[in-house]
Amino acid sequence: MALILVAVWLSAGVSAGLERIKQTAGEMVTGAAAAEDLLFSMPFLFLLERANVFAAASGFTASIQAKLALLHGEEMDAAAGKRWLAGAAGSGYAALTVMAALGSATDEPALLTMGLVLAVLLPAARVRALYRKVEERRRRIVQALPDLLGTLMLLVGAGETVQQALFRCMANGSPDHPLYGELRRALHSVRNGEPFGHAMEGFGRRCGVREAAVFTAVLLLNCRKGGDSFVLALRELSFTLWEKRKAVARMRGEEASSKLAFPLVGIFMLLMVLVGAPALLSVS
User: Fold this and answer.
1) Residue 166 and residue 116: Cα distance in Å, rounded?
2) Which helix (H) or strand (E) segment is 247 a member of?
3) Please, which residues have CB within 8 angstroms of residue 145's CB and are 6 or more apart in sequence?
4) Which of 33-47, 174-188, 264-278 shows the lowest per-residue confidence on average (mean pLDDT)?
5) 143: exposed, middle or buried (C-beta count within 10 Å: 0-12, 13-18, 19+)?
6) How many folded domains does the chain comprise?
7) If we measure between CA atoms, which residue out of 261, 214, 265, 208 comes closest to residue 71?
8) Residue 202 is assigned to a structural domain of this protein
């Protein structure tokens, strides 16, 4: 069984290498990512495409591509989702191959069953981790938007232009934060000659959050007017975003309290066993 799995893996790798080495030569990276691409992504990309799996699950593949573009930028090509899914499938196949080899060496059929379980769980865990990263990014952007709006209102109210205020907000924000990172990218495009409206539209699109798109729309509609009308529009939007932030914080608090219920129940059952066991033993 293990030899068959390894043979399929090697034949797929050779076929993928012969067929795709020229197309992917410019996309290869160095280090661990290159090793993963050679061992997992390329062979299983070849197998999954030959089996028409991507065509059958085109919606799921497009969803993965969209999430990768949010996390790594719009420069991700259209085949990035396929390569990522092929790498996830390859990691599960590798686990199955290793467990099958161990099962053959130790004559333990249960290891093969465990390998089948891992072949399903490992790709599912990678997909779940990707979804969690996207959700965490969205949450951080939603939480930081009210602070950005508050600072922008103060600066514009003090007499600065919108672009100057945004540059100050960018300078005060953390470069590792997704919201300020996208803002920095947009403002650098403005410095390089891109129109302000086009750069801010790209900012709202790259954030991938409805609240950021609303902020961009309000900003572009009112920044030319300036004065009290612009500050008033920002104040109304800031109030809405603060309510959204409080709702998110309330929801996370409820989730945390519900997660704490399970350990408490386990501790309670353990205490019952520790207290009741001596009494039961003494009666017996």
Assistant:
1) 53
2) helix 227-283
3) 179, 211, 212, 215, 241, 245
4) 33-47
5) middle
6) 2
7) 208
8) yes
Name the burial class of residue 78, with classes exposed (0-12), middle (13-18) and buried (19+) by CB atoms within 10 angstroms of its CB: exposed
Instruction: Give Rg (Cα) of the chain.
Output: 27
Choose between 139 and 112: higher pLDDT.
Answer: 139
- Residues 149 and 190: their CA atoms lie apart, in Å, by 20
Residue 211 is predicted with a pLDDT of 83
Quick check: is 263 in a domain?
Answer: no
Joined tokens for residue 100: 């099958």
Cβ(146)–Cβ(174) under 8 Å? no
Q: Which of 83, 107, 131 is the endpoint of a domain?
A: 107
Same domain, 169 and 82: no
Tens-place pLDDT, residues 83-102: 888 888 888 878 888 887 77
Domain membership of residue 262 (yes or no) is no
What is the per-residue DSSP string for 153-172?
HHHHHTT--HHHHHHHHHHH
Give the position of tokens 């672009």. Answer: 163
The answer to whether residues 171 and 155 touch, using CB atoms and an 8 Å cutoff, is: no
Model confidence over 124-138: pLDDT tens digits? Answer: 998 999 999 998 898
User: Domain of 222?
Assistant: 140-248
Closest CA to 84 of 121, 118, 19, 33: 33
DSSP 91-112: HHHHHHHHHHHHHHHHT-HHHH
More confident residue, 72 or 26: 72
**pLDDT tens digits, 5-23:** 444 444 444 444 434 443 4
Mean pLDDT (the chain, rounded): 76
pTM exceeds 0.85 for this model: no
